[in-house]
Amino acid sequence: MDKHYLTPLFAPESIIVFCGSPDDPSGQTAQARALRQALSTQRYSGSLQFLDIHDTGTLADLAQARADLAIIALPPKDVAAALEIAGRMTCRSALIISAGIDADQAAELKKIARREGVFLLGPNCLGLQRPKLQLNASATGPMARAGSLALVSQSGALTTSMLDWASNNAVGFSSVVSLGPHTALDIAQVLDFFANDPQTHSIIVYLEGIADARRFMSALRMAANAKPVVVLKAGRKPAGNAAAQTHSGTIVGSDEVFDAALRRAGAVRVRSFVELFSAAKCLASRYRPVGRRLAIVTNGGGPGVLAADWVNEIHLHLGRLSAETQAALKPQLPDLATLSDLIDLSEEAGPEHYRTAIEAAARDAQIDGVLTIYSPKVGADAAGMAQALIDIKQSVGKPLLACWMGDASVGEARKLLNEAGIPSFRTPEAAVGAFGNIASFYQNQLLLQQTPPPLTALAQPDIEGARLVIESVLAERRNVLTEMESKTLLSCFHIPVTNTVLARNANEAMMIASQLGFPVALKIDSPDVSHKSDVQGVALNIMNATGARDTYTDMVQRVARLQPQARINGVTVQKMAGAQRGREVCVGLVNDEPFGPVIMFGAGGTMIELIGDRAMELPPLNQFLARRLIERARVAETLAEWRGASAVDMEALEQVLLRVSEMVCELPQLREMDINPIIVDESGAVAVDARIVIGHAVSNAGDRSGRYHHLAILPYPARYERVWPMRGGGQYTVRPIHPDDAQMLQALVRGLSQESRYFRFISSLSELSPAMLARFTLIDYDREMALVAVYKERKADAQGVITETERIIGVSRYITNPDQTSCEFSLVVADDFSGKGLGSRLMESIMEVAREKGLSEIEGLVLAKNPAMLKLMRSLGFGEKPFHEDPDFRILTHSL
Which pLDDT does position 585 carry in this prediction? Predict the structure, then answer.
């Protein structure tokens, strides 16, 4: 149970290959010939056996050849038969290397694999490589160099191109996986394996589309939390989007939404094949930048200025030496060297000057990475300059990138840099861009760590009232809410709106306007008019009763003429918003296929489509995410003090976004929302107009995520938080874990006795590694759950001042098994809190969550020499039986 379920596929100890008879090459597919060549070239250390499905023999005979992995490279008509045989031989995984298998045949293969309990990669893929295992189970050509970078690609052509490039750039791989159209194992499951693979330190992904947004986001967040992930996605523009959907057979979705999803998952997106190569170079060097300040060390002003320009272009910061560093470094450099912005060593620079300057920059706290640029000079030694970088590489703890410009005179230097694992680029822009892509990993990690609940800490919204509004509209078989209904919905979630009253005739409009006070605005009220301005259905700054009456009449007649089929309920009257220097912004909602609801923010007003200013974020939001969403929009530059206007109330604007997030989470019927404009100034924010489109909530009986099944990211499940009394006095809180618990969880593990640590982790580890800590605290609440028992300790210092600190004293956890019906549990309790009922409470609580998720059985392994745990589980009704794979363990199970 400690191994990943895809281990038989990616780390098999025995393999059976179906690729046709070696005596009949003409009957073999091109993939079969390439596969046989690849397998025979490498010295795979496990058991490898070739079989022909047309050989004589009984199934009993074939069963003796059981294996972890069956590789099938046969003509399409024979693939299903080979997969059936692999299943009868109890192969735990299968790989189909083929081309031209359509969706119907692929679905039949998936059905066979599911029936036989086989994890299937393919069809229509080029296979996989695991260089450290000397396993080349692919039709991609020679084995890649061994390294720590995993490549996952939905394109076979790109896979072979990437491997060809890597062979000349000293880039090595832990794994290479080709995924084709209609594959059974999808990209989410492959990412899940690499997130837990100790041989993989970084992941690059070429993506054309995804089949399941929730699973993809779950796996990508898990992987990016443990190691850097860089994604190149095809189909950024409409033409490419359509082509990608045709090629991959999966859903592509909006490119802007995909950007938002990747940011939220903590991954980095690159825009071109060239950028992917650049990112691969940096990832292969295992650099982990912690900021965006890049220092530039150069021997020529021109290339340095080009690099600095690109630093500004892609929103990095030019790293500048502190005054103290400049003073210490200046005497050690040529007289013409300048250090104020660029670290320009001048044309007289030699290897020792480069070495000194780079070491100084690497030590400076104001710098996060160093780019070294070399321009060829007459009589200079390009290779010697490169050697200076190589000599100090190990002592430089920050990203170190190189740009040796030119060609003929720097070829040897580039070769030395590649072999030393220093990312080397031909142009300053490419080098700066590579640092920017990897630096974005740090920025996106801050977004990844956010796990907001569906409801904020603001005043409780009237969710039931909002649902009643929606249900009444749907009962009338309408999907578009009127302005009055839309504003009622906003008011249920405490979003400030202008006071709006519906007038049914001209006299009513006159009386309502007089009561509200002038000036007023009149707007047509019709479920069939999406944009009121398009039909001249908005009139502003009406100053008297006569004007209100006449405007009503003219507006109704004009709209009826311009849009004869529109149903007109009347005209809404509202007092003009009083803000003289307020800014108009827009908050909206769109539904994307496949990511679901997405929140938008940008400039508002009538020219919103023309301006095209919109930033996007996946719900749920918290204050940090709301602020970042605002900052990404261009209109953010106008929200501070601007042309004599005071800075707007940012907290009020953030609260509007948080309230919209609550609406999106709690109301799955929402399809579109356009709150435009929202007028925001120093005194607050108010929604002037709103248009909301709804539909019936889609129910998914197979989805275990409850009422939040419509979201790509499951909110923090705050509903599971409970306060329990402690046996012997006191109380503790049981709640779901979140990323901020990392240090408390580490303290729990450090405080365990050696015996307790061994019982829990089957090892003598004294603390959790950073990867384990990340894996245990940032989880996908849809497929797993960890509940922590938190105890508040009160201590008095020498002066008698009492301080209160929180401490995790126990953790229970389950992870859903691949069968999606059962789960595996684990439990640990602090030694000084054993015997106080924590273990029973934590297990009962985690079982209750698993039961609510629709799981049918919970199981776990316990050491036979751990009598306390065995006794606890028996008392909870768990059944016990031997674990045949290891007699030192007992397997405990309980029906849910």
Answer: 93
Tokens of 884: 């045949």
Q: What's the rounded Cα separation, in Å, for the pair 454 and 660?
A: 11
Give 144-286's CATH code, choosing from 3.50.50.60, 3.40.50.261, 2.60.40.420, 3.40.50.300: 3.40.50.261
Residue 159 has pLDDT above 50, yes or no: yes
Quick one: pLDDT at residue 1?
47
Domains 453-498+577-702 and 511-574 share a fold: no
Separation of alpha carbons 767 and 779, rounded Å = 19
Q: What is the pLDDT of residues 635-657, one digit of tens each?
A: 998 898 877 788 999 999 999 99
- β-strand pairing of 889-895 with 857-863: antiparallel
Q: What is the pLDDT of residues 351-376, one digit of tens each?
A: 999 999 999 999 999 999 999 999 99
Third-level CATH fold of 287-448:
Rossmann fold (3.40.50)
Q: Are 687 and 797 in contact (CB under 8 A)?
A: no
Tokens coding 357: 């300057």
d(CA 792, CA 531) in angstroms, rounded, equals: 55
For residue 51, give every residue at least 6 positions away whose Cβ sits within 8 Å of its Cβ, in sequence order, or none. Answer: 16, 17, 18, 62, 65, 85
Give whole-number Cα distances, 635 to 201, 628, 662, in Å. 39, 13, 24
Do 433 and 310 contact (CB within 8 A), yes or no?
yes
d(CA 293, CA 785): 38
What pLDDT is attached to residue 580?
64
Q: Which fold has domain 511-574?
A: Dna Ligase; domain 1 (3.30.1490)
Of the candidates 872, 877, 871, the residue with the CA atom closest to the CA atom of residue 896? 877
Task: Note the helical H segments in 197-315.
Answer: 213-226, 238-248, 255-265, 273-284, 301-313
DSSP states of 357-413: HHHHHHH-TT-SEEEEEE---TT--HHHHHHHHHHHGGG--S-EEEEE-SSGGGHHH
Angle separating helix axes 428-448 and 273-284, nearest 10 degrees: 70
Report pLDDT for 44. 87
Burial zone of 697 (CB within 10 Å; 0-12 exposed, 13-18 middle, 19+ buried): middle
Banded model confidence at residue 771, pLDDT cuts 50, 70, 90: confident
Q: Do 263 and 127 meet the contact criterion of CB atoms below 8 Å apart? A: no
* One CATH from 3.90.226.10, 3.40.50.300, 3.30.470.20, 2.40.50.140 for 453-498+577-702: 3.30.470.20
**Separation between Cα atoms, residue 462 and residue 447, nearest integer Å:** 29
pTM listed for this prediction: 0.85
DSSP string, 610-643: HH---EEEPSP--HHHHHHHHHHSGGGGGSSSBT
Half-sphere exposure at residue 21, Cβ-oriented, CA atoms within 13 angstroms: 8
Q: Residues near 165 by Cβ (< 8 Å), separated by ≥ 6?
A: 171, 277
Q: What single letter denotes the amino acid at residue 53?
A: I
Reported as a single tens digit per residue, the pLDDT across 108-153 is: 999 999 999 999 998 989 999 999 999 999 999 899 999 999 999 9
Decide if pLDDT at 705 tops 70: no
Residue 813 near residue 823 (C-beta atoms within 8 A):
no
What percentage of the chain exceeds 90 in pLDDT?
A: 58
In DSSP terms, 400 is beta-bridged to 370
C-alpha span between 340 and 845 (Å, rounded) = 60
CATH architecture observed for domain 1-124: 3-Layer(aba) Sandwich (3.40)
141: left (phi over 0), alpha (psi -120 to 50) or beta: left
> 594: closest CA among 79, 293, 187, 893?
187
Do β-strands 69-72 and 93-97 pair in parallel, antiparallel, or remain unpaired? parallel
Q: From CA 688, how far away is CA 511, in angstroms rounded?
A: 21
